Amino acid sequence: MYLKSLHIKQFRNYIDQEVSFTAPKTVIVGNNAQGKSNLLEAVLLLATLRSHRVSKDRDLVKNGSTIGEIRAICQRSRLPESYPIDLEMQMRSSGKRTLRVNGVNQARHLDFLGNVNAVMFSSLDLDLVRGSPESRRNWLDTVLIQLEPIYINLLQQYNQVLRQRNALLKSIKQGQIQYEAQQMALWDAQLVTTGTRLIRRRSRLLERLTPIARHWHQAISGGSEYLEITYLPKFSFTPTDLVENIHQSFFEAILQKNIIEQHQGTSLVGPHRDEVSLTINATSAREYGSQGQQRTLVLALKLAELELLESVIGEPPLLLLDDVLAELDLQRQDHLLNAIGNRVQTIITTTHLGSFDAQWLKSARIFQVAKGEISS
Ligand SMILES: Nc1ncnc2c1ncn2[C@@H]1O[C@H](COP(=O)(O)OP(=O)(O)OP(=O)(O)O)[C@@H](O)[C@H]1O
């Protein structure tokens, strides 16, 4: 797919900015806090309807405004040039969003998704290995939303059940209501049904990503390291388990935590607490990996994400590199730049052009950004 132009209004530190992407590679240069990440965030929002940095739309809308807008024209390779897609996303500090495709309102998120596909690689992604389980869960969710847009509905359903179950547990903890086994069993059943759908999809995604990530990981590390990626719910689980078996193990785990959940006033079992284990030669990459090993691993995961999306969608997604190139050593940079080639439309942000290969820069369009204004 090709992103032809982006128009952002009252979004983060931008007032009204239009950018045309006339080359497969765009480099955005600017000092810190000028709006580089904000621009990439706008593109990622169109692809996933989620920000990788904040959860509330009020943080995305420009301070002092009530409504922000991201508009893009893109071109899918399966459609003729005369059928560009016009996407519009309006967000309000109240949280209400309006989504339009070619001028037509889309009531459901899943009807908007799938028009833009993108892979973001930012310094925040180093948290994928070193950070909390939440960053790994968020990563899986972001990839799944693009691979199968219906996932956004499944995620919303689960989160709604979780919120209600947590509210009930909190009221029990605070003594506002009595624990009633029958009432709780209803919520348990919904948590298990909606949660199992997420667990199975996340685990299936890892089964598809692992061989690709392993390939990249071996290529970058020189072939001596063996990567394993495993989905770890709070109960015993294998990816080949039947749905009924997962349900049963999930229920048993909830039952075991029954008393402490009432005591803590929150749900302790479910995909919101799951972990993804990343091991190199059977050793935890998070606890024992060197910084270099962790960087190689994150790069391998991102390249796997790119390759998987490309094979499922049938064309390369956009690649958004937020100030990460300078953080990679030359060998890792080479792997990344070779993998991108000229096939993948890439938008790169950087504070200085010094770390870029001169030849590579020749084929790129370069913009400057300062105080939320982009110039060429
Ligand atoms: N909702 C908002 N309204 C107005 N300005 C905002 C909003 N959110 C962020 N900003 C401003 O955007 C700027 C940060 O931009 P951005 O995160 O894109 O930085 P950057 O250019 O990528 O720099 P760095 O290299 O430090 O990451 C800051 O000046 C911040 O105050």
Defining traits:
45% helix, alpha/beta, Rossmann fold, 376 residues, single chain, 15 strands, Glutathione S-transferase Yfyf (Class Pi), Chain A, domain 2, 6-stranded mixed β-sheet, binds adenosine-5'-triphosphate, 6-stranded antiparallel β-sheet
Give the topology.
Layout: E1 2-11, E2 14-20, E3 25-29, H1 36-48, H2 57-60, E4 67-75, E5 85-92, E6 97-101, E7 104-105, H3 109-112, E8 118-122, H4 127-130, H5 133-147, H6 150-173, H7 181-221, E9 227-232, H8 243-256, H9 258-264, E10 275-280, E11 283-284, H10 285-288, H11 291-313, E12 318-322, H12 330-340, E13 346-350, H13 358-362, E14 364-370, E15 373-375
Parallel strand pairs: 3-13, 3-14, 8-12, 12-13
Antiparallel strand pairs: 1-2, 1-4, 4-5, 5-6, 6-7, 9-10, 10-11, 14-15
Helix pairs in contact: 5-6, 6-7, 6-9, 7-8, 7-11
The protein binds adenosine-5'-triphosphate (ATP).
Adenosine-5'-triphosphate binds next to helix 1.
What does this structure look like?
The structure is a single chain. This protein folds into two domains: about 1-115 and about 315-375, P-loop containing nucleotide triphosphate hydrolases (Rossmann fold, 3-Layer(aba) Sandwich), CATH 3.40.50.300; about 120-315, Up-down Bundle (Glutathione S-transferase Yfyf (Class Pi), Chain A, domain 2). A six-stranded antiparallel beta sheet has the order 2-1-4-5-6-7. The mean pLDDT is about 95. It has 13 helices and 15 strands. The chain has about 375 residues and is α/β, with parallel strands linked by helices. Strand 5 and strand 6 form a beta hairpin. Adenosine-5'-triphosphate (ATP) binds near residues 30, 33, 37, 61 and 351. The RecF protein is involved in DNA metabolism; it is required for DNA replication and normal SOS inducibility. RecF binds preferentially to single-stranded, linear DNA. It also seems to bind ATP. Keywords: ATP-binding, Cytoplasm, DNA damage, DNA repair, DNA replication, DNA-binding, Nucleotide-binding, SOS response. Belongs to the RecF family. Its main location: cytoplasm.
